[in-house]
Structure formats: C-alpha cells, structure tokens
Amino acid sequence: MKLVFPTIEYKDKAIQYIGEFYDYNSEINGCGGLDRFLKESDYEMWIERTIAYMDIANPKDGRVPSLTYFYVREEDDKILGMINIRLALNDFLKKEGGHIGYSIRPTERRKHYATDMLREGLKVCRTIGIHNVILTCDRSNPASAGVIKNCGGELEKEFYSEHYEGVIQRYVIKENDSCFKKQFSEYNEEFWKSLETVVAESELIIDRPKGTAHPNYPDFIYKVDYGYLKGTTSMDGGGIDVWVGTGEKRIDAILCIVDLLKKDSEIKILLGCTEEEKEIIYNMQNESEYMKGYLIHRNK
Are 296 and 285 in contact (CB under 8 A)? Predict the structure, then answer.
C-alpha cells in the first residue's frame, strides 16, 4: 500500500470510492471535499482545488492549507482510503478538527488499513515538521479511537461539540510516543515470540552442564548450564546455543557474540536465567580479549 497524490488517471476509481459510501449509507470523512465536488462540480475541478490548497502562503477561501492523498493497494491499484493532512490549524481545528482526517471504504474495513494509512500520514507530518499531531473522533466511534491509539494517540480531553452535536475525543500523538515507537515495539515482541517458537519446537541438549570444563579450554569452567537446540543452525554450523538458568523457563535475554578468532558473530539464547546468572554469563562471555558479547534484555 502507498499514498498517491490524486491525478486524472484515478478519476473513475475515485468516483467509485465515494459511491461506495453512498451505497452503504456510510459517513464520508477525510476526502478533502471530493464528495461535495462530485455533486456540485466535477473531479477535474477538485484536483485543481486540491493542488491550490497546498499553497501555504496563499490559503484559499479562508481555509487552512492541506494535502490530500489516496491510499492505494499496489497490486490492483484500488483506492482503499483517503487521508487529508492539514498543514496549519485555525482555532476550530485546534479544538475539534485536528491535523488529520481519513476514511476507509466500507468494503475494506477491519483489515488494519486505517492504522497503516494513518501511520503513513504521520510520516508525512514528521517530514513537514508537525511533531505533535492532533486528531479527534466521536466518542461513539470506538473503531476510530482504536486506530488513533494504535498509532500512539493519547486522549487529551473529552467535550461536547455544538458543531458536531456530540461528545468529541481529542487525541495527541507526540513525536516521542508516535506510531514508529509503537510499531518497533510490536516488531520487537514478534522477534521474541519467534525465538520462543524455535525453542518450543526443538530438543534442548545440555552438553556442557554447570561445573564442567570447556572441551578445548580446560580452564574455562561453565558456571551455568550450557547447551544447544538440536535441529537448528547457527553461524558456526552447529545448533543455536542456549544458556539455561534456574528460573522460570522463559526467554528474556539474548547475547550477541563477536568472535575475533573465528571472525564470526552469533546469538546465544538465555532461557530462564536469573539476574545473577545473566551477570555471570555476561562476564564469562567477555573474559577473553578475542570474544565480546552484548546482552539484550527483553522488555517486561
């Protein structure tokens, strides 16, 4: 999916997009007035108006400058949604409208497109220097509120709007709490869950129990159980290495290792290790001048 600036080539698809809202008796938002222009004028005039509204120095009709995009699925070039990004806010928009309005066509809802589109819109906001993005939605629309929260939105206030004749929720997405941080957090958790899957589906072999010596370096004594996952492959061609502690058998850390003698790098899983055991393992992996390790903790 990608954001696409409206062109004449999308005329028929844009008309079909708006038509679908009428077919499903669904409210139209975030389309930059396309629905109104199709009724009162035509698509070509709407494009002219959309381009004119990008002129920050010369706002038209007393309105704020804005950018309007189609959200297009690349494989079939179908318009899934529309998003309108306001480059400045007047008093009304600061309170009740916000920086972004958007919509997803009725037949493509509940597929996470709204969250993904809003994330793309937030990237545009960052690019043009809008760091604290205001969004509003009706309190009776939990789906829209969920999309905003998925992108890092924090509820700032709730109030009755005479203009909308209903209770409005006003959210702010701050740069430090934005969708990017949340998205990375989600991906990070997927990484840990993937490791858990590998461990669960593999046989754990403890071939170097606590108290035993390294087969090639007899002075190196293992202070925590050490083994590998049978049927897996690490950088050295063997199975993925695992340190096994005395705590609950859960992965909550890994060690990234650089071996200067072998000139390779690999990870070692820490399974059920207490904080004391993690410290012991970390120190052991950094004792040699030829091997260094970096411990990465899993977020609680």
Answer: no
Render pLDDT for 215-231 as a digit per residue (tens, 0 to 9): 988 988 999 999 999 99
Helices 142-150 and 113-127, axial angle in degrees (round to 10):
50
* Placement of tokens 């629309």 in the chain: 141
Query: Which of 22-26, 167-171, 176-180 is the least confident region?
Result: 176-180
Residue entry with tokens 């998205």: 183
Predicted pLDDT of residue 101: 94
How far apart are the C-alpha atoms of 61 and 1, rounded to whole Å?
33
Q: Same domain for 91 and 211? A: no
Q: Give me Rg for the CA atoms of the chain.
A: 27
Compute the mean pLDDT over every residue in the chain, rounded to the nearest whole number.
90
Range of the domain at 41: 2-130
Torsion of Cα atoms, 120 then 106 then 100 then 136, to 10°: -130
Residue 175 has pLDDT above 80, yes or no: no
Q: Is the pLDDT of residue 181 over 60?
A: no
CB proximity list for 271: less than 8 A, separation 6 or greater: 199, 204, 242, 243, 244, 245, 249, 250, 251
Q: pTM of whole model > 0.70?
A: no
CA 278 from chain centre, in angstroms, equals: 30
CA–CA separation, 161 vs 157, rounded Å? 12
CB 79 within 8 A of CB 105: yes
79: β partners: 72
CA distance 242 to 178: 35
Strands 264-271 and 240-244: parallel
CATH of the domain at 8: 3.40.630.30
- From 79, 98, 130, the end of a domain falls on 130
